[in-house]
Amino acid sequence: MKDLSPAFIATLAGLAAVLLWKLKRKSDLQKLPLPAASSWLWGHEKTIFEREPGHAFNEWTRNLGLTYRIKAAFWAPDVLVLSDPAGIGHILQDKIYDYHHSAVVRPRVARLLGKGLGWVEGEAEHRRMRRLVIPSLSSENIKAMAPDIRDTASRAVNDLVSEIQTLGDESVLNILQWTAKATLNVIGRVAFLYDFDGGKSEEAHRILNARRQGVSPIVKYAGFFTLMLLRRFPFLNDLPISSIQAQGIAKLTVQSGVAQEMVPPCVRRNKDLLHQSQGSYKDLLSRLLSAYAEGAMSHEELFEQISTFVISGHETTTHTLAFTIWQLARHPNVQARLRRELDTVSEEPSYEDFQSRLPYLDAVLKETLRLFPGLPYMERVATTPDVIPLREAVKLSDGRTVTEIPIETGQTVLIPIIAIHRQEAVWDSAEEFRPERWLMGLPPKEKLVTGWSHTLAFSDGPRNCIGFRLAIFQYKVILTSLMRKFTFSDTGAQVLLKISSSLQPWVAGSEDDGPSLPVHVHLT
Ligand code: HEM
């Protein structure tokens, strides 16, 4: 055998040394600050689950700053936790198409809502879907929907009056169940021209019960363990594990129930015989059906979009309204001030009144969404290497101070929305419900994020909530109608917040009863 030349051996040795150095070299991400006390098995994730939503993140932000990393369960790579407004703006506004829903979030969105607008990835496909539905959710269109929204809301409120008259004054109500009926009714009527009969119809019951079943298992420890396993082993998504598959019951209920009624048989058989809205506004269903008729949407996608909008169109608004009523019950002064403001406008405020003449109502909504954002944590994964700019410099373990963090493809980024909304360094008495803060000077702009009203309640950028205008308008209409008929007072129940993809309230000691916000409801 021929001897290897010294030059060849030296080159090999050099290459090996470079390789070893590269392997040992830590990336800047691995030099980011790390909270103390992580579990060998669960990393920091069990601490996050066990504490009130956002609390662990706020403690870490206080100690480590706005950008740090945490250890993930089952030895998965570290997660970048980002509360820095510049970094968040960069991801959500400038680079959202390079940051996809993670392998644990995306299948969950498909199960919960459907493979519709909230699930799709890729700029071209996302923009196509968004363009299709946006005319139905524009401010002009929502203004045209106003009479129908008002009518639907007042029917639901009248149903509640009858219920309270039957139950007797001083009734304690899980207000979440009522708001769910009211908002499902609105989305049914204005988006799908479908009557859920004030949320009393058989179909409404089936959808709302299915959703409660889907939420219940996941907030318990078993649900947490399953979630952690899913993060590490995404193939488990397809196995028949009850706490996972239960999340999908509501979607399947919509697709096999109301969606069949919404898409008339003539359209299913012959696309030319298209049902068209006769109303004064562009309802969502007609837009979806037109796209289907033109061949721009498959039969499967049509049903996935319907379930997406029926569920996302009511659930978050349900919770926002219920959290407000619960807070009004606990803060009689806020309730009285809101009532005084509503007394200054006509019985049925116009679209314009809601825009400009009711600032305290607006402040109550903002304060509710600040403290109780429907999506408390957002998780995205980089699909390409990137450099994230930071407004607040961060000190790395090698002593350098940097204002940007390079990341690799596959990096998980967690934006702890609820913690950002409750940062003591930004918001005075951050944990308190104080709508007045929105009428006084806000914190300095550089400390705030750039989403709707300086919150991330509706996310931000090209993938922000497409339904936010409808959500805000129906919230204001329903709350105003309720305030005309009822007063609310506190029951003293201890309410715990937990996350089951969205923020869910539970009464301590009655976890098996499912999400609940009990409130005393009195007729005025
Ligand atoms: C107070 C009520 C609401 C809140 C707090 C809320 C919040 C959000 C948030 C945070 C996102 C971003 C989700 C993510 O990036 O993973 C989102 C997206 C979305 N929301 Fe809402 N939402 C509300 C009401 C509505 C309504 C009424 C509709 C339908 C009419 C709706 C339909 C959607 C859809 C389809 C998306 C996906 C948008 C996209 O990816 O382009 N939401 N919402």
UniProtKB/TrEMBL annotation:
It is found in: Membrane. Belongs to the cytochrome P450 family. Its main location: membrane. Its cofactor is heme. GO terms for molecular function: heme binding; iron ion binding; monooxygenase activity; oxidoreductase activity, acting on paired donors, with incorporation or reduction of molecular oxygen. PANTHER family: CYTOCHROME P450, CYTOCHROME P450 12A4, MITOCHONDRIAL-RELATED. The keyword Endoplasmic reticulum does not apply. It comes from Roridomyces roridus. It comes from the Eukaryota. Pathway: Secondary metabolite biosynthesis; terpenoid biosynthesis. InterPro entries: Cyt_P450, Cyt_P450_CS, Cyt_P450_E_grp-I, Cyt_P450_sf, Cytochrome_P450_monoxygenase. Heme binds at residue 465. One of its GO terms (cellular component) is membrane. Keywords: Heme, Iron, Membrane, Metal-binding, Monooxygenase, Oxidoreductase, Transmembrane, Transmembrane helix. This is Cytochrome P450.
